[in-house]
Amino acid sequence: MFVIGERINGMFKEVRRAIEERDKRVIQDLARRQLAAGADALDVNVGPTKGRPVENMIWLIEAIQEVTRAPISVDTPKFDVMKEALQACRNPAVINSTKASVTDLDRYVPLAVETHSQLIALTIDETGVPRDVDGRVMMGATIVTKAMEAGLDLVDLYIDPVILPVNVAPKQPKAVLGAISQLRLIADPPPNFVVGLSNVSQGCKERSLLTSAFLTMCIGVGLNAAIMDALDKDLMDAAITAEVLLEKQLYCDDYIAAYLGNR
Amino acid sequence: MFVIGERINGMFKEVRRAIEERDKRVIQDLARRQLAAGADALDVNVGPTKGRPVENMIWLIEAIQEVTRAPISVDTPKFDVMKEALQACRNPAVINSTKASVTDLDRYVPLAVETHSQLIALTIDETGVPRDVDGRVMMGATIVTKAMEAGLDLVDLYIDPVILPVNVAPKQPKAVLGAISQLRLIADPPPNFVVGLSNVSQGCKERSLLTSAFLTMCIGVGLNAAIMDALDKDLMDAAITAEVLLEKQLYCDDYIAAYLGNR
C-alpha cells in the first residue's frame, strides 16, 4: 500500500497558519508524524492560503525536504504552479493531479516523463465525474493510452477513479469499486489505483466506519494507494490488515508493529 | 446481508451447559439477543455436548421456536441428524451444510428440495479444501449444476467457499475473494455466498481487525451472507456500512439505527 499522507494541506487551520507565518516546525512535525504512522509519501497542498500559491508551495516543499527524503505529492490544480514546484523537488515527486481530458493529458503526461515524476490521473474530463463504471473505465483507458504513447511507465501512473461523498452520491462507491476491478485488467502489469479517501465520508456522521470500510473494499478489488489520514490509527490498521489478508504483507501475530517497524 | 448468528453452539460453555441441563432460558435469551443485534437467522450446533446429538438438536430447535419465527440454520455434519432435525423445524430452515462431493450433493440437494429448506454447500470434497481459486470455482460449478438439475432454486442456495485461519493458511483469504468474484458470474441471478467468518482469525491476535476487514472485503466482491457473531457490534456495524457503500442499504446519517430498526 502506497499511503500518501493528506495532512499537509492549507485546508487545515494549523497548516494555513504555519504557511502564512513561515513556521517550519509545524510542517516538519506533521511530515515526521505521518511518516512514523505509516505514510510512504506526503501530499502538499497550499489550500486557501494568503500569498502567492507558487511561493507557498515551494516553501512547503523545501521545509519538508529538510527532514525527509520521502516522495512529495504536489497537489495543485494549476499547471504553472505544478511546473515550478517540481523544479523545487529534490525528493521523488508525484504530480497530483491531471484530469483525463486530452488537453490536460497532453500537458501533464509529458511533464511527468520529463521530470521523472509519478502521475495521478483523475477520471474527470470536461463533462465532469462519470456517473457510472463505464465512464470511468473509458477515461481510464484514455489515460493509459496517453501514458503508453508518451513513454510513461505504468508503474509510475496512478489512476484515481474519483470518489464523491456517499451521502450526496450514493451510487459512486460501487462505481469506483467496479472501475478498479475492470481497469486492473487493462494492462499487465496494470497501472496503480489511488483514491482521495476522506472524500467518501465528507459531511457524514459515521465518518470513521465509512472511510475504513470503503478503503478495505477498495483494497480488496485492487486499490494499492490512497491519499488518506495516516495519523488515523484505526484506518492505517484497517489498511495493513487488508493487505495481510491479500498476502501482500506477511502474517505474523504482531503484523501491525512489524509493518510499521519495517519502514 | 443475511446474517446467521453463530452463538447457539455447544462449543460455547454456557450453551453446552444449557443443553445438558435443558435450561431453555439461556438459549432463548441468546436467540433474542442475536436477533435484536441484527441476525436474520440462528445457527444451531450441539457441539461436543453429552447425550444423543439428535435429541439435543431437536430440543434446541424447539426451545428457539418458542420465541421466534426466524429461520434456523441446522448445523450438523450428520445426515441422519439433519433429516430428523428438519422434521422438527416449523420455522424456515437452512441446511448447514453439504460438501461438494457428488455423493453428498445427491443426498442433500434433494433433501433441501423436499423440505423446502435453503442449503449451504461447502467447496470441500474428498480431496479436502481447494488450495486456490480454481478448485473452488470448479466445485462451485458442480454445486450449481446439481442444484439446477434437482430443481433447487439458486436463491435458496448458499455457496460457502471455505475460509481457513489466515495464520496457518495465508493464501486462503485471497482465494475465497477470487472464488466469490468468479462464481457470482456463474448464473443470473447468481446463487448466494456465505462464509463461516470467525474461522478467518481463529488463533490470531488481532481477531477483531482481521474478521472485520475480511467480511468487508468479501461483501465488496459479492458476499451476501455470513455465519458470524451478531453480538459483536463492531462487526455488525462494518457489515451494515459495507452494504450502505454498495447501495444495498439506503444512506442516511443514522443508517445503523435505521437498519436495526427496520427489522
In short:
The structure is a homodimer of 263-residue chains. Chain A has helices at 13-20, 24-36, 53-65, 79-88, 102-114, 133-150, 172-183, 207-221, 233-245, 255-261, and strands spanning 2-9, 41-45, 72-75, 93-98, 118-122, 157-160, 192-196, 225-228. Chain A is α/β, with parallel strands linked by helices and 263 residues long.
Structure write-up:
- 2 copies of one chain form a homodimer.
- The first copy, chain A, is α/β, with parallel strands linked by helices and 263 residues long.
- Helix content of chain A is 46%, strand content 16%.
- The first copy, chain A, is built from 10 helices and 8 strands.
- Chain A has an 8-stranded parallel beta barrel with strand order 1-2-3-4-5-6-7-8, surrounded by 5 helices.
- In chain A, helix 7 packs parallel to helix 8 and helix 8 packs parallel to helix 9 (233-245).
- The longest helix of chain A has 18 residues, at 133-150.
- Chain A is globular.
- The relative contact order of chain A is 0.12.
- The mean pLDDT of chain A is 97.
- Chain A binds chain B through residues 166-167, 170-171, 173-174, 177, 181, 200, 204-206, 209-210, 212-214, 216-221, 237-238, 241-242, 244-247, 250-251, 253-256, and chain B through 166-167, 170-171, 173-174, 177, 181, 200, 204-206, 209-210, 212-214, 216-221, 237-238, 241-242, 244-247, 250-251, 253-256.
